[in-house]
C-alpha cells in the first residue's frame, strides 16, 4: 500500500473513491459538507432516505455522485459527534479500509484525516491512519496454498489535509509506515507455527534484520550460554530437541557514550508447560509465546528504518518448553547467571526462567533502562483482557513514559503495583527463590516480582502482553502489539515526537 498526503479540494480530486465521514443524526463532517455542496445537496438527500444512520463502523458506497471528481463516494459513520474521539476515529478508518478492500477501487482519498480528534495534531492523525489501514489490510495467508480471495486492486490511499498541516504530516507518514512494518514483522513471526518458527529460525530472522539495517547481531549457542552460567535459561531448554539460542542485537544510532536502552523479549517458540503439562484445549495458541521476542524484532525494524538517534540493545532468550526424558522436573533447583538459586516448582512458569538470565546479561551494557516484554501470565489475561498490556516497573518515571507511549500509540498499558508486600509471596524452603508463589493470587504481579529480583541494578520495566499479543476466537492471530508502544517510547526518547 502506498500512502500520500493531499492538499487542495478533495471534491475536485480525480480518484476511484472519496471517503467522507458522517456523524449520527445526519450531521455531516466538515469535509462531507464540502462534498455535499459540490454535489448540489446529493449527500443530504441520500441521508434523508435513511440508508446510513452514521453509527460508528457502518459504511455506504455511492456511485455517480454529481459534481465531484471521484468515481465513488464512501460514506463512513463516525458515531455521535459529541462522543467522537480516538476510538471512533480508528473505527472509521478501519471500516472504510475494510469496505474498500471489497471494491474494484485502486486509489482512494480519505478525508477522515481532517477530522478533529481531541487535540491530536495532524501528524498523530496521519500516523494512526497509516497504522489502522495497514492493520486491516494485513493478511495471514502466507502458508495457504490457495490465497484468500485475491486482494482487489486497492493499493493507494491519500489523506487530505489543509496546506498548513501537510508539511508536518509527511514525516508522520513515513513514521507510520516504519511502525506498521515492525508490527507486520511481529505478526508474521507470531503467526508462524512452532515447527517453522524455532529458536534457530528466530536467530536467522534477527540476522536478516541485522544485514538489512547494518545492525550488530550475535547469536549465542548452548555452549556459550553454559560458559556464561545461564543455568536457568538452559533448564527450560532441556526437554526440547530444538537447540536454544540467545540473540544479541545492537543498534548504534546515538552518541558513542550514550547509555543504551535494552529491550528483552521472551522467545518461547512453543510452551507445552513442560512436565507441568498444560491442558490440551487451545494449546496451539502457545506458538505465540515468542511474541515478546517478535515485538523486540519489530521495534528494531521500525527504529532502524527511522534511523532514530539512540543506542538500543535487543536481547532474546529463545527456546521451546517441552516435556521429555531430560526435561526439568518440578522441584529441581538450578543456578541462574546472577548466582541466585531457583527452585522450579512449576515448569510452566518458564518465561521468567529464561528472562532472568537475560536480565542479568543486560548488566554488561550499563543500560539507561531495561524493558522486558513477555507473554508471561494467564492471570494478566484475566485482569486486563485484550485491551491493555500489564505494566510493572521499579521506577515510576519510566513507568509513566511507557504508559504515555501506549496512550499515544493506541497500544495501551496499565500499571500494576510491585510493592514489597508481594515479594513476601515468593519464598522457597530449599533455594533462594521459587519460580512460583504458593497461591494463584496476584499471578501477574508475582511473576514480575520474580523478575525484579534480577533487575536490581538498573531502571527496569516489565510488559506482560499475554492478553494483548494475540486475538483468540474466530479471528485468531497475532496483533503485533506492543510494537507501537515500544516504538513511540523510543521516538519520544529520540526527540522525534
Ligand atoms: N505462556 C504462559 C502464559 C500465558 C497463558 C500466555 C495463557 C497467554 C495465555 C506462561 O508461560 C505460563 O504458563 N504461565 C503460567 C504461570 C503459572 C504456572 C504461575 C500461567 O499463567 O498459568
Ligand atoms: Mn508456561
Ligand atoms: Zn510461556
State the distance separating the first and last CA atoms: 24 Å
Helix/strand/pairing category? alpha/beta
Contiguous uncertain segments of 5+ residues: none
> What CATH architecture label of the largest domain applies?
3-Layer(aba) Sandwich
Provide a descriptive summary of the structure in words.
With 497 residues, this protein is α/β, with parallel strands linked by helices. It has 2 domains: 2-160, Leucine Aminopeptidase, subunit E, domain 1; 182-493, Zn peptidases (Aminopeptidase, 3-Layer(aba) Sandwich), CATH 3.40.630.10. 36% of the residues lie in helices and 19% in strands. The chain has helices spanning 30-38, 42-48, 86-101, 122-137, 163-191, 199-213, 222-228, 231-237, 291-305, 351-362, 378-384, 396-409, 420-423, 443-452, 483-493; strands at residues 2-6, 17-22, 59-63, 72-77, 107-110, 156-160, 216-220, 245-252, 261-265, 267-271, 311-321, 333-335, 341-343, 369-374, 389-393, 413-415, 433-434, 460-464, 470-471, 477-478. Strands 7, 8, 9, 10, 11, 14, 15, 16 and 18 form a 9-stranded mixed sheet that branches. A 6-stranded mixed sheet has the order 1-6-5-2-4-3, with helices on both faces. A hairpin with an 8-residue loop joins strand 3 and strand 4. Zinc ion binds at residues 268, 271, 289, 350-351.
